[in-house]
Amino acid sequence: MPIFHANQLINTGTKIFSAAGAPLEEARLVSELLVKSNLVGHDSHGIIRVIQYVGEIEKGFIKPGARIQVIKENSSTAILNGDWNFGQVVAKRSMELAIEKAKKNAIGIVCAFNCNHIGRLADYAIMASENNMIGIVVANSTKFVAPFGGKERVLSTGPICFAFPSNLEFPFVIDVATSVVAEGKVRVALHKGEKIPYGWIIDKDGNPSDNPKDLYDGGALLPLGGDEHGHKGFGLGLAVEVLSGILTGAGCAYEEDKRGNGVFFEVIDVEKFMSIEEFKKKVSDLIKVIKNSKLRPGFKEILIPGELEYLTERKRLKEGIYVPEKTWEEIKSLAKKLGIDEIP
Amino acid sequence: MPIFHANQLINTGTKIFSAAGAPLEEARLVSELLVKSNLVGHDSHGIIRVIQYVGEIEKGFIKPGARIQVIKENSSTAILNGDWNFGQVVAKRSMELAIEKAKKNAIGIVCAFNCNHIGRLADYAIMASENNMIGIVVANSTKFVAPFGGKERVLSTGPICFAFPSNLEFPFVIDVATSVVAEGKVRVALHKGEKIPYGWIIDKDGNPSDNPKDLYDGGALLPLGGDEHGHKGFGLGLAVEVLSGILTGAGCAYEEDKRGNGVFFEVIDVEKFMSIEEFKKKVSDLIKVIKNSKLRPGFKEILIPGELEYLTERKRLKEGIYVPEKTWEEIKSLAKKLGIDEIP
């Protein structure tokens, strides 16, 4: 059972991406963010993606080193053409620009298109909160989610992410899909040969299903709220689609040639509203009140958004990251193909 | 069964608020927005509130004519002290200012505190979309919602609202509570003596309940997503709380002296990103694709956010607004008390 230190995985990823043609800085950034996903417990967005990304470089979908261009800009806003560089590279640049604009003008909004998969939205929103600002990120991708009342896929899982500065031990960050579950959860059940609860997906005829395979046989994810309250997730998903698919120019999930992420980044400078110390104290007080409030029967703890990821990261930094045998064999053979011998 | 034209109700409201001490312009604005709620089918936010608002004027909670002050401002942001004028008056002023700032600087964010109940968020977000801009409104109020895993009320129902310009016949506006349902829905069931579905509320001990009375006996609403996915509604509700309760200075739902709404208004000028014609066309295309996509068994139509309200308004403008006998009697006796004789 291969277990690795984070740095071993980062170095492996960096070597592989470099060998596949990426500039060192990009190869390292992407590897760091992938391994960060492993550390916080989101393995589906972790080192396993190295295999996919190298495949996409070979197909010409990911263009390492591609020049990101600002195609429209004013003091508070910008639109970035990512020219299909790694999504992580485009997203980091976008968030840096949004932070810069917010520092000067209270608010910054940066939209990115021609942008590959960016990974976890939280990584970028946290860049803002670490700068004492509020970070908001929404993104679309390919279609997976049916509208409330419909059976065809028309929207992506449309995640919404907020990060807020605080005095808490962990980064206070909310990162939720507007579908009942992210697609990855269904895929995990499929790979494990397990059933899923009713209410996650419908099959190709629009009927409820507990078989994860039905999602990939023409079915669809349901919007957050499910059969009874799915109009809410549908509405929020639509808002994400307009902001990240239309305002960015990246294109909507329903479009046949859609790929990658359209991403909307917003940063708000807290200091333009109140002192950052006051803001952080009030956020921390709110969280403490909630954290210490009484539990429902059957629950052991009230988890604050961002908390579980933080606890997992602490654990995995110490104990290492487990990579499934099959995944590691694929990574090793990919490395070998690229002429790299000295990976762990 | 009293049925009225919208104008009759607006005039009645205007007379009552005027007699209760409100300047004519404020009396008319509040009445128009209340009756607008009746027109679009949200009777819980409609003319019935005249009774509550006059009570709050008498208690000194609502201060008609109070001077709204900008206490902090820069080119893109402002904080407004509503001085406890009608929430509608404060909200309209806030949104006007946010639109003005967005026209000049691409984005405007205005936060309001000391603000009474503002009614439907959609009314203000639509002010932006009617100006070819994106309108975003989030608000907090008193506590009603338990955190995921908890049984105590700590958050308000924290609605999120987006309005987008389009070429559609109806205003495309998303306005959803981050709780499973709005509190009003439980109250309606209570008044009708009906049970509610499991999954909406918990009782004071944190157990699932189908009895609406349990909400008012120390129970709580559940966050959107319910027992299985409630961490999502909880997360979104937390984001609303921070933006509208903390950044505004209005105070958090959990605070014992909390009343009224804290409100966060954001406006984004589409023209800073792309031509408004292109944006509207793309939004309209998205909606048409969804509207025409295939239905699930058991559904007759895919309703787009804002559509049902529009259809209801068309119907009620023609057929009139039904006001329950008991409500109308209360309004009549209130009018009489205030020395108004000539209401319908």
Mean pLDDT of chain A, to the nearest integer, reads: 96
Name the overall outline of chain A: globular
- Backbone structural class of chain A: alpha+beta
Number of domains of chain A: 1
If classified by CATH, what would the architecture of chain A be? 2-Layer Sandwich
| Helical stretch tally of chain A | 11
Name the helicity range of chain A. Answer: 40-55%
Low-confidence stretches of chain A: none
From the 3D structure, determine the CATH topology of chain A: Ribosomal Protein S8, Chain: A, domain 1
Query: Largest interface by residue count?
Result: A-B, 80 and 80 residues
Q: What is the oligomeric state here? A: homodimer
Distance between the termini of chain A: 13 Å
CATH homologous group name of chain A: Malate/L-lactate/L-sulpholactate dehydrogenase, NADPH binding domain
- Name of the CATH class of chain A: Alpha Beta
> Rg of chain A to the nearest angstrom?
20 Å
User: Main beta sheet of chain A: strand number and arrangement?
Assistant: 7 strands, mixed
Short description:
With about 350 residues, chain A is α+β, with helices and mostly antiparallel strands. Chain A has eleven helices and twelve strands.
Commentary on this structure:
2 copies of one chain form a homodimer. With 344 residues, the first copy, chain A, is α+β, with helices and mostly antiparallel strands. The first copy, chain A, has one domain (3-180, 222-273, 319-337): Ribosomal Protein S8, Chain: A, domain 1 (2-Layer Sandwich). Helix content of chain A is 42%, strand content 15%. Chain A contains 11 helices and 12 strands. Chain A has helices spanning 6-19, 24-40, 49-59, 87-105, 122-129, 183-192, 213-216, 226-246, 276-291, 307-319, 325-337, and strands spanning 3-4, 69-73, 77-81, 107-113, 133-140, 160-164, 172-176, 201-202, 208-209, 220-221, 262-269, 321-322. In chain A, strands 2-3-4-11-5-6-7 form a 7-stranded mixed beta sheet. In chain A, α1 packs antiparallel against α2, α2 packs across α10 and α4 (87-105) packs parallel to α5. The first copy, chain A, is globular and about 55 Å long. The mean pLDDT of chain A is 96.
